[in-house]
Amino acid sequence: MTQKQKCVIVLSGGPDSAVVAYWAKKEGYDLYPITFNYGQIAVKETKAAEKIAESLGAKTKIVDLSALKGVFGDVTSLCNSEIPLTAEFSQPIIVPFRNAIFLSVAVSYAVSVGADRIFYGAHGSDEPFYPDCRREFYEAFEKTAQLGTGEHIIIQAPFSGKLKSEVIKKGAELGVPYEFTWSCYRDAEKHCGKCESCVNRKKAFQDSGIADPSKYDA
Amino acid sequence: MTQKQKCVIVLSGGPDSAVVAYWAKKEGYDLYPITFNYGQIAVKETKAAEKIAESLGAKTKIVDLSALKGVFGDVTSLCNSEIPLTAEFSQPIIVPFRNAIFLSVAVSYAVSVGADRIFYGAHGSDEPFYPDCRREFYEAFEKTAQLGTGEHIIIQAPFSGKLKSEVIKKGAELGVPYEFTWSCYRDAEKHCGKCESCVNRKKAFQDSGIADPSKYDA
Predict the structure, then answer these.
(1) Nearest chain B residue (CA) to A92
(2) Domain of A64: which CATH number?
(3) pLDDT at B73
(4) pLDDT (mean) for B41-68
(5) pLDDT at residue B91 in the model
């Protein structure tokens, strides 16, 4: 029996990366998920990622980078409760270069476990707002990873260019347990329903025609 | 009076990045040093970095990423005492993609504090061995940083292509307090004198004709 090809998946606990993980499983990869605590208020994300990985028979490597809050905590509402959260996209929602930090560690993990590719959940609905979700970014990152490791590392966002609603639809086909996923930037019992991430989640489920099992406060 | 331009410096506690910091100070920059605990055995490095920053009237931001040991601790002798340290370059001395992880966080820090450039201590003597010390790597990284942040971030290794002995010589001219610097991969009272990093340090000081104030065990 041929050994399965290993891949690292940046698993956030949100629905997009959960769909990526289910997609990679279906593609036949051996999954090495990795999840970051980067000082975000929504620590619930990491628990969500654990459950999603377990549902795939995998275990996600949770990496505590919470000290990063000291690096960018003054500028992002995701790590600093004194900066107001908005329902629409706003500058403080951006954690500067966050995906590059995650992908750098993911590359290091890939080299350490002998995986040659990394998948992450960037998609078309985020591309206008988040520069580190764009194809030109991750293609440049891939080149950097190859030069910086001397290995033929592949970085891929399989849903690049697709709408979030299309990702949700794909996930439903793949059997993603959306009840395990967490999108809210807050850390309450239910999704707040008002922050940009909740608003995007609700809209994507509505547009896809898939039922959202999450409970919302508003 | 014009405000000084801000720069982030990846300050390891070793002599190379100390020279970069002194060079940047002389160039007139306002220094924002950043130092990483990445689970290395030589935690003394971070204390060294603190002293070097203080000697420049700056304070280095120490970021505790020691959980990274769980990511690459199985493959690198720098974080795992069960993997033997060698006097010559060997694969386990490499922490895969380490400089990319550091530079990613440095970029995030730069954006957060309003700096547009990052300096790090890569130089010509490391280039044959460490892919993430090479110019083509950091040029690709710079492009990635610009695409991933939407800002005109500059990444520079001012001693790219120079021998370590030339860097040491330059540092002596700039008044770098080499007695504060730490190179050893071990964490004993004195430099071990036998690991690859000690060997390189000793050779560079010898070749430069500068006295090395470090005490060595061998």
Answers:
(1) B112
(2) 3.40.50.620
(3) 87
(4) 97
(5) 87
* The total number of structural domains that make up chain A: 1
Lowest mean per-residue pLDDT among A1-15, A201-215, B100-114, B171-185: A1-15
Q: For B63, which residue in chain A has the nearest alpha carbon? A: A67
Model confidence over B89-130: pLDDT tens digits?
888 888 999 999 999 999 999 999 999 999 999 999 999 999
A157-175 pLDDT tens trace: 999 999 999 999 999 999 9
Is A216 inside any structural domain? no
| Domain membership flag for residue A217 | no
ipTM surpasses 0.90: yes
Q: Could you say which of A74, A107, A137 has the minimum Cβ distance to residue B148? A: A137
**B1 pLDDT above the threshold of 70:** no
What is the distance in angstroms between the Cα of A214 and the nearest Cα belonging to chain B?
Answer: 31
The token pair that represents B115 in the structure block: 């700096």
Please indicate, yes or no, if residue A116 is contained in any of the structural domains. Answer: yes
Test mutation, A144, A146, A160, chain B, max B CBs within 10 A: A144
Query: Are A65 and B67 inside 8 Å of each other by CB?
Result: yes
Supply the range of the domain harboring residue B19. Answer: 6-72+96-177
| Domain assignment of residue A154, yes or no | yes
